[in-house]
């Protein structure tokens, strides 16, 4: 999972360099940063729409306790488990 996140982040930075690089030679830095700000706000709104909100369904009641003791099929003898028997 970490490798996927790192690979995605590196790919996004490379794509961002390709997209935003032609803006700087023409001296449009102010407009480039303004467009980047607007796009960032757009992604924040998109994040609210696409979020997985599972916190409204949380149940803080403790789970019922079932039998905590299981019946053993084989009752071990005191010498069981030693390798030098």
Task: Report a brief summary of the structure.
This protein is an all-alpha fold and 85 residues long.
Q: How many angstroms separate the termini?
A: 47 Å
Structural class: mainly alpha
Major sheet: none
Percent in strands: under 5%
Looking at the chains present, what oligomeric state does this protein adopt?
Answer: single chain
Alpha-carbon Rg, integer: 29 Å
Characterization of this structure:
By secondary structure, the protein is an all-alpha fold. Helices cover 48% and strands 0% of the residues. The two termini are 47 Å apart.
Describe how the helices and strands are arranged.
Blueprint: H1 2-20, H2 29-50
Structural descriptors:
85 residues; mainly alpha; 2 helices; 48% helix
